[in-house]
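2.7 Reproducibility. Because tokenized structures are sensitive to small changes in the input, we list the exact sequence used for Dyp-type peroxidase, including any N-terminal residues retained from the expression construct. No trimming or masking was applied before prediction.
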Amino acid sequence: MPNDIPEPQAVYTPITRSAIFIVATLASGDESAAIVRAWCADVAALVRAVGKRVPSGNLSCVVGFASDAWDTLFGTPRPAELHPFREFGPAGRRAIATPGDILLHIRADQMDLCFELATQLVGRLGGAVQVVDEVHGFRYFDMRSMVGFVDGTENPTGREAADFTMVGAEDPEFAAGSYVLVQKYLHDMQGWNALSVETQERIIGRTKLSDIELDEAVKPTSSHSSLTTLTDENGDEVKILRDNMPFGRPGSGEFGTFFIGYARSPAPIEQMLENMFVGRPPGNYDRLLDFSRAATGGLFFVPSATLLEALAERDPQASNDVVAEPSALPASAEPHYDGSLSIGSLKGTSQYE
Ligand code: HEM
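Resulting structure tokens (single pass, no recycling of outputs):
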């Protein structure tokens, strides 16, 4: 029965030219929680209404909830691996956690579409939330990040993207959901641009102009590409799906990258953060961080679109008393949600071993 298969939110979408990232905290009180829950049922209709006006604009929105907010808003059952953002790294080079209960990731080919949808979504939430961070990102030349290198090349595509980003049989109640980790980075562009192109290439692990991976013989183990490449116990690569966006205000000296990574478990993204900030082995850290500071950090769960709508009806008081009975996935969904990622056995996973 295909109707039993939950529909994911728009996690995997075509590349767009613009994005707005909004992180908000939940106001206290039952009334605010009730407003946010009711809003969950309106999101899809608002995306349809705004998107319809420019059919070629590829407008989409992904909504995620942080760990404490999930408990307040929806009680139990809760996503198996949802927890507060874990910090990594020493003082001065640290992936920090910052406040944030709700994430909106709005994407389109035109900023006016993103802007209108953000206005509608935030407007409807009113005083039930407080926006604590809002970043308007743009696509920079040929998919280049703020630091001048093409970004997103090694992203999984097609079926692989779905398999790496969607929760499956490992947590059937939350099938077709995803975990998403965000960080707002600010760059020291003067320092970065003072480096030779060859030095920059060794830091990223790819060539700058042609975006080709450096040969293993010359690619340092501290390169960004090396430290973010993970394999499971079978030697198979474990990927995440990224859609980073440059942003900034040249007049104020602000040059940034909004990092956003989706996966079917927080574990691989956290492992990458540990490798980058602490180092693999410790001390062999990502030199990109000598020129980039993480100013924010948040981890969120993205329910399937089907569940997002249903969450509007949740009564957290009642559900907190209920022990959830996981429903079996339909057989037709199983090859897709095979739950075979072996996240616990990522190579070098000091925190999971
Ligand atoms: C300062 C912010 C960041 C910048 C400017 C940046 C930029 C880049 C660039 C230019 C590449 C090479 C092209 C590509 O395959 O996409 C890359 C690769 C990658 N980055 Fe980042 N990145 C940043 C932060 C992060 C973070 C925080 C993570 C994970 C937690 C991450 C994970 C990855 C992964 C998985 C790859 C692909 C590696 C491979 O398979 O070769 N990046 N990044």
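Residues 18-313 form one domain.
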